[in-house]
Amino acid sequence: MIPSPHRTAYRTSLALCLCLPLLSSCMMGPDFQRPEAKVSSQWLGQAPTAPEEAPTAEQNLAQWWTAFNDPQLTSLVERGMQANLDLRKAESRIRQARATMGIAGADLGPTVDTAASLTRSRTPVSPNRSEVVTGNLYQMGFDAGWEIDLFGGVRRGVEAAGADLDAAMENRSDLLVSLSAEVAGNYLNLRSLQQRLAIARRNLKAQEHTAELTRQRFGAGFASKLDVVRAEALAATTAGQIPLLEAQVRQTIYSLSLLLGGEPSALLEELIPEADLPTAQATVPVGLPSDLLLRRPDIRRAEAKIHAATARIGVAKADLFPKFTISGALGLQNTTFTSTLNRASTAWSLGPALNWPLFDMGRSRANLELKKAVQEEELLAYEQTVLGALREVEHALIASTKEEEHRQAMAQAVTANRTAVELATALYAAGQNDFLAVLDAQRSLYAAEDALALSSRTVSTNLVALFKALGGGWPAEETAAPAGSGS
Q: Cα(72)–Cα(62) distance, rounded to whole angstroms?
């Protein structure tokens, strides 16, 4: 039973403890509002379309690489998403952010500690210390404390941590976009290099054949030594390109191995065999410029950073106001262990406390201004990210359209140069033309075929760039509401 003189104070403390949590509905600082971005209603460029005989169904942006209909490319991208080291680091950062959110949320509830101790002491009871008391003190019990989030500082901290988690998840999605595009780009470059290597070898074989015929004609007195030297020089020049292309083939395979988290030689056996350059047979679901705001992970990440910065303004503002804490203790203490377990050994305490720094040389207000400036920076970064995304899409659209026109022109050039080689060779054999015309025609044919191979690769890589600019390459279900969203 609590003694009557203390009953009123006890009831007052208890009433304060019960009422303080009911007051903790106030939230300092601004609520997060999704930033408005002004974007055009349509794109300036025209999306590339599929050939008439190809399927025209829109491809899923989440797995855009399947539009190339290359099982090996699909396998490489999927393996990269499982083993890429940067992606695994991003997943680790997500776990860190989730744990940080849990730490922040723990401050919303009370803390309870338990302790037990035995203290033996010797205390003098007379000035000359002729009499002393030696004894034991047994203590055990619980201590509890609860900081009432009266002004919402802790809740704003949880909100900020949730937005940080959103940003970490969007960072992983952005890495998926970049990784799929980088794997596809390297793979397409590899197949293009192998195609160019085959072209170089084929032209070298033709040029060596021409050089041999020229030597025979020189031996028969029908050609000059100059014709022989020119033919051999052209063949040697083409032969000199082959080692360079072979080196680039190896280096590209090494880069792909690294993207898949393996040693440089991990994919050599798989990718050294030559294969055709894949081409996409699909329309591109470009959509509207406003779709980018929801689709691109880097824009969503920038939005999450604004959310976190906005919530931290509330945290800083709450620091300007007092903090209320409810603390209590319940325990047993006595000088003998057996007596400690008696009801008479019970000790308790309960009551609220207030802490309000009245003077800190302006530290809290400066911190508030700092958080406001950080939010302003994140808003500007968001705007910059949106503008950069719009630019990337427009660049990819115009590049895809114009490169296809270039490829078609180079295809016509190859056809014309093949005819020129045939005509020049026939005229030279009939003695109606200079051998230099044959060499020029062969040189032009090799250059045109190589340029056509490069253009074909660029058409495909421009398409990859367009898919990347549109935010393709991560699961569509991840567009669900972010973990830290809310006001």
A: 18
Contact yes or no for 479/295 (Cβ under 8 A): yes
8 A C-beta contact, residue 352 and residue 326: yes
Strand order from edge to edge, sheet including 132-148: 111-124, 132-148, 323-334, 346-355
In angstroms, the first-to-last Cα distance of the chain is 47
- Residue 73's SS3 state is helix
Residue 94 makes CB contacts below 8 A (sequence gap 6+) with: 165, 168, 169, 172
pLDDT band at 72 (very low <50, low <70, confident <90, very high): very high
Reduced DSSP (H G I as helix, E B as strand, rest coil) percent helix, strand, coil of the chain, to 5: 65, 10, 25
Q: Encode pLDDT of 290-334 as tens digits.
A: 877 888 899 999 999 999 999 999 989 988 888 888 888 877 777
Please identify which residue in the block is written with the tokens 């293009």. 192
Can you read off the two tokens belonging to residue 134?
């030696």
Q: Quote the mean pLDDT of the chain.
A: 83
- Could you give the domains of the chain? 23-110+150-321+366-479 (1.20.1600.10)
Which residue(s) pair with 113 in the sheet? Answer: 143
Tally the C-alpha atoms within 13 A of residue 21's C-alpha that lie toward its C-beta: 10
Cα–Cα dist 186/309, whole Å: 38
Nearest to 355 by CA among 384, 326, 329: 326
